[in-house]
Amino acid sequence: MKQSQLFTKTIKEIPKDETSFNAQILIRAGFVDKVGAGIYNFLPLGLRVLNKINNIVRDEMATISGQEVLMAALTPKEVWQTTDRWDNFDALFKLVGNDDKEYALGATHEEIVTPLAKKFLCSYKELPKSIYQIQVKFRNEPRAKAGLLRGREFFMKDMYSFHANQADLDQYYEEVKAAYFRIYARLGLEDLTYLTYSSGGAFSQFSHEFQTLTEAGEDHIYICSDCRVAVNREIIKEHNFCPVCQNKNLTEAKAIEVGNIFKLGTKFSKAFDMKYMDDNGQAQEVIMGCYGLGPSRIMGTVVEVFNDQRGIIWPESIAPFKIHLLSLKENEAANEIYLELIKNNIEVLFDDREEIAAGEKFADADLIGCPYRLVVSAKTLQAGGVEIKARPSDQMGIIPLNQIINKFSH
RNA sequence: CGGGGUGUGGCCCAGUUGGUAAGGCGUCUGGUUUGGGACCAGAAGAUCGUGGGUUCAAGUCCCGCCACCCCGACCA
Questions:
Q1: pTM of the prediction?
Q2: Complex confidence, ipTM
């Protein structure tokens, strides 16, 4: 991508109606744009990041046999009445269509996925199955805040699994847990993310959240350093010790919930009368699990966690581009490098803008935060190459022209 | 939903005891620059959130409403 053609440009001023760091810097760098409280447009750079997060999620869901679907976002009132949530789910955005027909914008999809799965999963031979989607969710939050961390419209990966018995759900649940940790590891959040015990409702003692440590987080978790898990507030009120090792010496920390998984049991299969035929020809209730993860919230979290005074420091796995190539009055030479990188499928943002001061290009590169910065100038060409610098470091070096592709093509 | 704060060109903002809107960024034109948001000259761009009221006169004072931010409550 040539920066001269990019739809957005960076801005110097901090937007006055944002105080959260992730929103300020994502807006300044041109990743997102604010529409209203908790409502954002995703712009070319931001969408690239979001898509990369989504693709990591897809990749890991595939390893646990999750099949991607896309369910309706406009959901009829009746399904919510079936589970008694039409009047009890405060955050539902409700709307009225023709003939006074009422709908809710999808806030979660148990009410849609259960009738859907009922149409296809009828026999023990067809279980277990697991389907997921990545979709915009709508929740009428009483108070949207903190940029991408709590929006009224946000992206969610929600997966639902269907099992013939509890043991099968239990086993799958553990597989999901492991897949989630692989996702956080690929996002660079492994060390900061804790499996966190929270209350489980009627069907299991606990559910689990995945909490990433950051001062920007709105949750308080209590970490057990012995077994590297945490408990949330409601659990510590009940138990006041680590549910794994009974350790009472827990450390409080602020965190943001980047995922949660839940054993639903038969709550929804009962409500929608979803049963399967077992090998004795007997109808049995289907056991369900659900597994949420918020890609847009994760994008905000990554920004909160990886940054410095100058801008974002994207992990390579989700950076909008791997390389930010800056031409300082050497567009011809830089363009050759640009074309060569493109030819080798190396993602590059090429700052080919003319009449732009070098300082501005450096400032933009730091703000946007691609992992590597390559500078082409008369000076570097004289030295036989281009300057290379990793985003978080101050160390610069010259890399010969004929080694660039080799350096980045793995 | 309670409490607090803020609304002035696309963005950030100044605006005194009420007297007809200043500056910076960005944009456009010309020139000078060219390794950390460079400089000079000129230009375009504003129903001052919105509706009402007071006044000869309202960005400024009064009342209602709306939007956004923060704290709290809430967050299957």
A1: 0.96
A2: 0.93
